[in-house]
Structures are given as C-alpha cells and as structure tokens.
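Changelog-adjacent note: as of this version, every example in the card shows the full chain rather than a window. The one below runs 102 residues end to end.
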Amino acid sequence: MDYFFYFSEVDETLRPLLPEFFDNLDDDMKELGEHIKARESEAARKIAHGIKGAAGSFGLIVFHVTAAELEDSLRSTEIAWRDVESLFEELRGKADTARKIL
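Full-length structure tokens:
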C-alpha cells in the first residue's frame, strides 16, 4: 500500500493536521486496546466511533471503514471478541503503515 492509497482523499486544507491526528490516534489506540482486553465493549465502541468520525472528517477512508467495522462488531449483542481483536490489529497495522509514509 502506498501514499495514494492512504491519503488520496485527504482534504488539502487538513493535510497539515495529519501529524496531530496520528498523535491522537496513538492515544486512542492504546486506550481502545485496554478496553478490548478488559472486554469493555461500550467503552471500546465509543473510542472506535470517535476514530471513525475523525478519520472520516479527514477523508482517511482506510481508517474510517475499518473503525466503522470495529464499532459495528462492538455494538453486536453477541460480540465475537476474536473478530474485534482482529479488526483492532488491522486498524493498528494501517496506522503504523500510514505513519511511515506520511
């Protein structure tokens, strides 16, 4: 995956704020991971929702879609924690890759 894949939809006026987005994302991912580990679905869902919204505002569709899937998984009445953990790892991997090419 390359720069275009991650950042092609980013609004040019927001591009200077991307480093701050990723700094905040690091904090959110740490907290999200803690809530997932503790099986605190509602707290984790709220963080996933926030990531989804922030990513969507920036036009970071790659993150928006994965965070939306994670949020939906956490909203389920029968949570499949393996799926949640997998989506969390996918989101973390995308963040790591994007930060390297930013």
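Structural remarks: The helical segments are 3-7, 18-37, 41-58, 61-75, 81-101.
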